[in-house]
Amino acid sequence: MEYKFYLTCRLKFGESAMMSSSGRAALLSLALWAVAGAASPAEPQSPPPAAAAADTYTPSPENLAARQWFQNAKFGVFLHWGLYSQLGGVGKPGLAEWIMNDAEIPARQYQRLAQFFNPTGFDADAWVQAIKASGARYIVITSKHHEGFAMFKSQVSPYNIVDASPFKRDPIAELAAACQRHGIKLFFYYSQLDWHHPDYFPRGSTGNSSERPAAGDWDHYIDYQQAQLRELLTQYGPIGGIWFDGWWDQKDTAMRDRWRLGETYRLIHQLQPAALIGNNHHQAPFPGEDFQMFERDLPGEHTMGFNTAPISELPLEMAETMNGSWGFNLTDDDYKSTRTLVRTLVQAAGRNANFLLNTGPMPNGQLQPENIKTLGEIGRWLQTYGESVYGTRGGPLAARSWGVTTQAKGRIYVHVLDWQDPKLSIPIKQAVARARLLKDGSPVAMQRTREGLVLTLPPAAEGDIDRVIQLDLAESAR
Is the pTM above the cut of 0.85? Predict the structure, then answer.
């Protein structure tokens, strides 16, 4: 995830056989040409500025329908899984997936981890069933994180889980098949930043202890990236979209404007028109992007130090961890409670955003049992209150100190999270026919005032996470 977030957590939680370059370049060029199925590579041209993605973008009808589905889904599960999972943060709290950078491990030594990566406990169906039981409607998995290791079979790089590890299986293929069987959409996280690839040069703000060559062909690296994206978009059936991360590594270098985003985004939309593109760059969305994401902050909040971009009109998503790390951390037991996570889900929905909740699978390929338990508890809450989340949009009121509102056709849901008084005044102008508790349908007394509506709240029951009151609008207000 974002480097500034890494620094924030580091401060908070504590420190935590090569061929010649010409031969490598010739081999990679041939591989890229073969995978792309194109004519010989053209001479590189000066790319347009990437900050504006070079061109305008008109989403297709399939893409617009996918955006609607995404906004209705409201809840997804993030999976950070890679070579770093084996080290588990080496006994330190913080961001375990950043261990290559944090511990300053050279790429030539870090890549040895692939020889020991054999997650024989991986069961794609077990993963998807546990995630579906949480009420999540989609999954995002790291196909390649900053370490540069592909968690899928890649023809353009032997540095992948099938060719470089004793596991010899493609977990992305197995997960894609399980998602299709169980009706869950699958998105692929893909790191634009790469601490392993020699052509990711000049280096940005991270990975500077990797001991890679002090030279490289940037456009060659972008070609490599696009070839891997082509694999992800053509080998695993229909996918939900691509979740990019790492652009920020070059935001203070000349490469900031040389990512060739317009070209990359067109490739994705051409191969899968319904696939959604998001980029965790913490800028205003670039043309070609289909949703805007916020890392560990609700839209409009700025607690992590980098979510400063204005809120766009695109679908929104907030990503959060279950403890302090995205990847599996052996010693980080500081798990957020089910209560905290459900309330964050509700707060996100009230701000018209999805909630993407992360768990880091263990080195053996299994999900952490503590996280499976929490996911199940979230699912049970959603069985009762899901209609106030799924398919809704942000309510008519901006977030208040007491909670948020969501809305669907003919209904407004009042989510009372923090309010001790028996009466709650809300400035809702729509005509309301009746108010009732969502959990059991019991009536809630209400009184119309000049300012809006006053609800007489029932006392909060022990264990209540959110008192949800459904307001049925009068026909004239629908």
Answer: yes
